[in-house]
Design a protein that fits this description.
The protein is mostly helical and 224 residues long. Helices cover 48% and strands 3% of the residues.
Length: 224
Amino acid sequence: MSPNPFTNRRARRSARRWAIEAALAVFVAAGLVFGLSNAGSVAAQAPAAAPAPSGTKSSQRAYDAQTAASNPATPGLVQPIPFNHAIHATDFKIDCLYCHSGTDKARVAGVPSVEVCMGCHAQFGGDLEGVQTLTKHWNEKQPVAWDQIYRLPEYVKFRHNRHVAFGVTCQRCHGPVETMDKVQLTKDTIWWPWLLPSTKPQMGWCINCHRQNQASQDCLTCHY
């Protein structure tokens, strides 16, 4: 019985396919072994990842403002973050109510939240030490422990919103904040006809302002 030519042809094709697949398997295995054995050296030769861009460098004015606000010789308290009112209020023309929002509606003025500050400084100022401290508070979800400058006795009920509604400027009580590197108590003394002084923010100073502006001088206006 003569062999079937079609059967022999299929056998040869199967053998050839098996040989090719076996060669490919050996090649792939060799490549994996080589890659694993040289992974350490390849990683060592790879260049280090470039640092994230730090953004635009702050101006010299910004550095000078930070230095002035952190300088113990500058009048005023050194705060946890060297915030400079002069550069914010004068150079950048930021309105008081933008940071101290709600002052025209609430009794107390309060201080801006870290979120308000980061609304601007997430975009610029990252090379300043003060902004880096601010960012650290933001990342750790911690408020800034500002040192209080103005503090009236508990029995004095001073309402910011009523004064703002009447048109009293911030500078009337707080002085020219827009020129200050650090907020500080500003001196202002008035003399009564009987030659007794009253210094801001003493009661006599406030009563004198109320008299000048035809505001109530009733005791219950401030003490209730």
